[in-house]
Amino acid sequence: MTIAQEINPQTTVGQDVIFPPSDLYSDEPPWESDLHLRQIILLLTCLKWLWRERNDFYAAGNLTIYYSPHQLKSEYFRGPDFFVVLGCERKTRKSWVVWEEHGKYPNVIVEILSDSTADTDKNLKKTIYQDTFRTPDYFWFDPYTLELAGFHLLDGEYQPLQANEYGHLWSQQLGLYLGVHEGLLRYFTPEHQLVPTLEEMAQQAERLAAKLRELNIDPDTV
């Protein structure tokens, strides 16, 4: 398969069209490192908690996206490190099969760079996400150098996002900023507040309770 064919799969005509079963499994390789795993889990869990009342999105990490125009599992598939699809049913999936999801592609993609993937993420994948997926927001982040870059699709081409005074990049699709906090990529609200993890929320609650006790106030009565 040539790069041009992968970027524009519609240009390839298969002789034998085989319709695979709907429950395709993800074919993605293991995580690059423990840090990559921690980063993806962080993005996934924080968004799911923040959007816990919503049922109109799907978010996943290291999951295969099948997008063959011939509905073939054996051709045209990619596995972003993290992606979000909006306007779909929130349910468990074994993989994302475009032809079974009303032609929907991710609204947001984040790739976590490594020495072995950085060139592909910055070039080939970026071109596929721009020209085939038409994904509106694309980001990449290097957990070692802390390089963060983002792009928004405008008139069919990715335009680089400019960081604000906090070094954060705005995602129109998520309605959130993405920025680096303590060496990890995190979400920030439009008011620049860090979207906390459940553990961070518990720590905040404990600190507040301790302060109330110092004031002779029972936190359980507040």
Automatic annotation (TrEMBL):
It comes from the Bacteria. Residues 33-179 form the Putative restriction endonuclease domain. Gene3D superfamilies: tt1808, chain A. It holds the Pfam family Uma2. Keywords: Endonuclease, Hydrolase, Nuclease. CDD domains: DUF820-like (cd06260). Coiled coil: none annotated. The keyword Ion transport does not apply. GO terms for molecular function: endonuclease activity. This is Uma2 family endonuclease.
